[in-house]
Q: What sequence folds into this?
């Protein structure tokens, strides 16, 4: 008589023996592995496609970042503040400002456009005035003095945009005689170094 | 998770099926697939062969592994890899049997037939059957249940693979074991 334990043991032995007689043929497993390889290659292609996609996204982000300041550029207005001083007859502060402080219509600030206007009309224009003065750097500001008649303070940002007649700002000495051109509105148009200074009767 | 697989893959040579599968899915290396097939390929094939025939078992085995290759994320880790593999294999087999019109009701639902009647019908020669032949006398679902149990699956895992309630599986196992026990008893008596 077979006990349940003996039966269980015998069943398990028979099962294992039967399983050993039924193994997956080698050709089938080889075929499965062979067919797996193209999938592996295609996953490589997928990786390459994903890389391309990621690079495109990164490029778009970079372009967006680079173009962002252009979109955010706010218009600047040329501002002249005229005051009086005990040493000079007239003191002018020339600067670029994002906002107008006057109710008067703002002047066009683009110095290059103004300069083009100047060059186009310089032959016949009487609207442009030529002055000679002494250019000096005073900390963050540059100043041009015309004897004791005029003290002209120029904002550094404005100076960077002015036409310096193919000179760089760094070419100017700490103290330098210059000829500066202003238009009819009093806006500075150009500055160029000159060798001859100005004779001031009072000095 | 990927790191743990990487570490275990680096330091240990004996990976579990789940680790091998994750390594295969992440790297696409056929070496891991070969190891997986070596680990469970024969077991699945044996199960399928007992439930159909060798040719169909080869075909279904191949289908089953190719599904794994083509849809690696179909295994979500809700069960053991082996449970999932057998579940896929079983479903593929039943679909194929239906397609070939070899899926007949009379070979399935014989659970209520008393196994003793079957034994009594066997003549003396048939009582000396091989184990595999004895298994073939069982109805499809009873054979399936007993084979899965002998393969080491728990009652719950068999229930998951077959998508049948545990009580149904218990019933199938009871009938199948009674039948096999009677056959074994008769064989012993005749021996």
A:
């Amino acid at each position: 008589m077979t006990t349940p334990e003996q039966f269980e043991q015998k069943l398990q032995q028979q099962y294992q023996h039967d399983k050993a007689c039924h193994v997956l043929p080698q050709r089938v497993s080889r075929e499965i592995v062979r067919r797996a390889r193209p999938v592996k290659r295609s996953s490589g292609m997928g990786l390459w496609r994903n890389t391309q996609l990621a690079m495109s996204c990164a490029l778009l982000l970079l372009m967006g970042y680079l173009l962002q300041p252009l979109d955010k550029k706010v218009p600047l207005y040329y501002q002249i503040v005229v005051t009086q001083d005990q040493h000079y007859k007239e003191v002018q502060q020339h600067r670029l400002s994002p906002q107008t402080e006057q109710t008067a219509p703002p002047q066009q600030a683009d110095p290059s456009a103004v300069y083009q206007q100047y060059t186009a009309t310089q032959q016949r224009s009487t609207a442009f005035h030529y002055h000679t003065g002494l250019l000096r750097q005073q900390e963050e500001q540059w100043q041009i003095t015309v004897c004791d008649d005029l003290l002209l303070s120029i904002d550094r940002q404005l100076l960077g945009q002015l036409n310096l007649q193919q000179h760089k700002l760094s070419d100017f000495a700490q103290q330098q005689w210059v000829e500066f051109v202003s238009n009819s509105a009093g806006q500075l148009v150009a500055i160029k170094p000159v060798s001859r200074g100005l004779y001031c009767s009072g000095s | 998770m990927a790191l743990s697989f990487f570490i275990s893959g680096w330091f240990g040579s004996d990976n579990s099926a789940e680790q091998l599968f994750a390594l295969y899915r992440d790297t696409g290396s056929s070496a891991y697939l070969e190891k997986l097939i070596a680990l469970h390929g024969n077991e699945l094939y044996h199960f399928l062969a007992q439930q159909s025939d060798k040719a169909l078992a080869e075909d279904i085995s191949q289908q089953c592994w190719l599904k794994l290759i083509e849809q690696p994320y179909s295994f979500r880790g809700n069960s053991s890899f082996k449970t999932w593999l057998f579940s896929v294999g079983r479903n593929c087999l039943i679909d194929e049997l239906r397609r070939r019109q070899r899926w007949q009701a009379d070979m399935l639902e014989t659970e209520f037939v008393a196994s003793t009647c079957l034994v009594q019908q066997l003549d003396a020669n048939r009582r000396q059957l091989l184990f595999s032949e004895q298994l073939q006398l069982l109805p499809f679902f009873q054979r399936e249940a007993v084979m899965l149990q002998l393969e080491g699956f728990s009652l719950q895992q068999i229930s998951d693979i077959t998508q049948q309630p545990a009580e149904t599986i218990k019933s199938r196992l009871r009938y199948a074991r009674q039948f096999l026990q009677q056959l074994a008893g008769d064989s012993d008596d005749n021996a």
